[in-house]
Amino acid sequence: MRRFGVISALFLLLVGCFPYGFAGGGLPAHVKTVAVLPFDNQTPSPELQREMLDALRSALGRRLGLRDAPEARADAIVRGTLIRYDIDVPVAYSADPTQATSARRLLQLTLDIELVDQRSGKALWQRKGLTASGEYAERAEAEGRRLAIERVVNDVIEGAQSQW
User: Fold this and answer.
1) I want to staple 144 with a disulfide (CB 3.0 to 4.6 A). Which of 41, 134, 158, 160 is the partner?
2) Separation of alpha carbons 79 and 35, rounded Å
C-alpha cells in the first residue's frame, strides 16, 4: 500500500509539471463587450427581429459574460439576416376528436448570422443558412418561435465558446 501511495504522489508531481489546459477556446481575451445589431428581417413576422435581438443580448451577457455596448465602442458585433420563417409544418395529428390539441406543428427559422471581432474585422463565428426549429401545439405559434430562437442562441453561444 505504501508503494502505491509513493507511486501516486510521483505521478501527480510529474503530471503537474506539464502544463495542459483548454487555452485557445472561446473568444479572444480583448473581447469584453458586444453589440447585437437588429437583424435584417426578410420574413413576414415583424416581432421575430425584436425577440431575436432581446434573446441574444440577454444570453451573451449571462452566459459569456459580455457587456452590451453601442456598435462604435463594442469589441465584437453580432449581425445577421432572418431569411425564412415557416410556421405551418405539420408534425403530428390526433385521431381523438375530443382531445383539445388536434395537431402538432413545427416552426422553422432560417438565418445567416455572424459574430465579428471589431479590432481585426474577422468573423469569430458564422453560419449561413442556420436552421432552427420549435415544435408547438396548434394555435401556440409563440411557443414554437421561442424554442427556435432559443436553439439559435445556443448555437451562437456554443460557436463562440468553441473557437479552437
Assistant:
1) 134
2) 9
Longest dimension (CA), the chain: 73
Splitting the chain (164 residues) into consecutive groups of 10 residues, what average pLDDT does each group show? 60 52 65 96 95 96 94 96 88 64 81 96 94 89 94 93 69
Written as one string, the DSSP assignment of 100-148 is S--EEEEEEEEEEEEEEETTT--EEEEEEEEEEEEEEETT-HHHHHHHH
**Amino acid type, 133:** S
The two beta strands, 67-68 and 103-117, are unpaired
CA dist 158 and 149 (Å) reads 14
What are the residue ranges of helices labelled H in the chain?
A: 2-17, 46-64, 141-161
Cell numbers that stand for 94 in this block = 390526433
